[in-house]
User: Which sequence fits this backbone?
């Protein structure tokens, strides 16, 4: 098994091999599932505001496409690595299969620090990056979307650049667009809404009363902030701790996510929120609560802190927030872990809705989006939970058993060409 400190791609491979052995897959199939189908590294120049030229490195990895076109976000971050992108692409394959939408997994990223770049520099970087990806992407082959430090504006530049290159408007090339450019209603909160539906189902199967439930959320970006709002407003849970990259806050009587969001907008941090006590991110993860939501970076929960996790339910809003060793500790503690490939699959599900709407030029209401998402997430949770109970395994293993088997069956049915 992989250690806490292996890179995410090694962790992703270990997960496949573990589940492959349980499923009785042969070595060739396990090897096929462990390797990306295609990957591209590009080094490209971007004119900066001061007149200099800077060279950036970007990646796009397509892991698997046997169940449909590849789908996955693109992130801008100074610590992006090829192995991280490989792992995220693989996890996207399993995520799409877990909620049974007809996509394979992909991921992209550019090594940059968007916090230190102007809007003009980010636009030029995006447009050049898209131009470099043109041979690989398309509305029926690989559909990117937003991820860390990319947003609806980034997707607008992406769509426009692709459209200018092909000679006509192509909204279906990318998801996460503004509604005025063919985006789907409900996309901004989709990941968090899907998480909320999963938490609701987890509390129901665990016989936890909502009025008595408390929540701690690590990460107060789009996923964390919307999760806090929805868990409070729609499930009636009490938010007792929130954090961002600079630190966290706690208030046992409850925090108002909307007010905290406004405070962060004004000050740049959730810390020093009136009436709350400042805490560290490490302290937030160990807060006694009913539901803990890690919604920040990978590997937040490791063997070093897993034994100190004091939550009944761990809802993984981020991708890969728990290491393999942490998983084992949490399982022994009896913590109900809603794995990332199920818990945060609401985002890719509504991205799929957006893509379908773009292809049909027929758009759905917010009510329709929520009803369809609720149906898909509820069914997926039930399927994973039932499998975990019947196979006597944890929820993550159950999700992988189901998703990997879906990809294996599709591979066998299609055969190996030629």
Assistant:
């Amino acid at each position: 098994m992989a250690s806490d400190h292996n890179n995410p791609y090694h962790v992703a491979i270990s997960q496949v091999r573990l589940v492959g052995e349980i499923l009785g897959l042969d070595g060739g199939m396990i090897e096929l599932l462990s390797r990306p189908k295609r990957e591209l590294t590009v080094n490209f120049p971007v004119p900066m505001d001061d007149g200099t030229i800077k060279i950036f490195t970007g990646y796009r990895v397509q892991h698997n496409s046997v169940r449909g076109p590849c789908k996955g976000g693109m992130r801008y971050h100074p610590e992006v690595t090829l192995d991280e992108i490989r792992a995220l692409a693989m996890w996207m394959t399993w995520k799409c299969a877990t909620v049974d939408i007809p996509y394979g997994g992909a991921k992209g990223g550019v090594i940059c620090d968007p916090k230190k770049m102007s809007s003009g520099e980010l636009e030029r970087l995006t447009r050049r990056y898209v131009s470099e990806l043109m041979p690989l992407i398309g509305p029926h082959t690989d559909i990117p979307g937003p991820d860390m430090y990319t947003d609806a504006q980034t997707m607008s530049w992406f769509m426009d650049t692709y459209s200018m290159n092909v000679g006509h408007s192509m909204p279906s090339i990318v998801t996460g667009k503004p509604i005025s450019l063919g985006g789907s209603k409900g996309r901004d909160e989709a990941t968090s809404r899907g998480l909320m539906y999963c938490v609701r189902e987890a509390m129901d199967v665990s016989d936890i009363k909502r009025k008595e439930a408390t929540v701690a959320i690590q990460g107060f970006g789009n996923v964390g902030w919307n999760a806090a709002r929805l868990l409070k407003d729609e499930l009636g849970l009490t938010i007792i701790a929130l954090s961002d990259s600079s630190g966290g806050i706690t208030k046992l009587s409850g925090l108002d996510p909307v007010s905290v969001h406004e405070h962060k907008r004004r000050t740049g941090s959730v810390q020093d929120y009136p009436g709350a006590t400042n805490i560290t991110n490490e302290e937030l993860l160990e807060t006694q609560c009913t539901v803990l939501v890690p919604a920040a970076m990978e590997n937040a929960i490791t063997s070093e802190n897993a034994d100190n996790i004091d939550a009944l339910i761990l809802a993984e809003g981020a991708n890969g927030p728990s290491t393999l060793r942490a998983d084992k500790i949490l399982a022994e503690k009896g913590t109900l872990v809603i794995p990332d490939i199920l818990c945060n699959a609401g985002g890719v599900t509504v991205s799929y809705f957006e893509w379908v709407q773009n292809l049909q030029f027929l758009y759905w209401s917010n009510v329709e989006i929520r009803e369809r998402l609720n149906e898909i997430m509820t069914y997926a949770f039930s399927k994973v939970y039932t499998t975990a109970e019947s196979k006597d395994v944890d929820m993550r293993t159950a999700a992988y058993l189901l998703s990997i088997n879906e990809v294996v069956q599709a591979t066998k049915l299609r055969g190996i060409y030629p």
User: Anything to note?
Assistant: The mean pLDDT is 95. The first strand starts at residue 38 and ends at 47. The chain is about 45% helix and 20% strand.
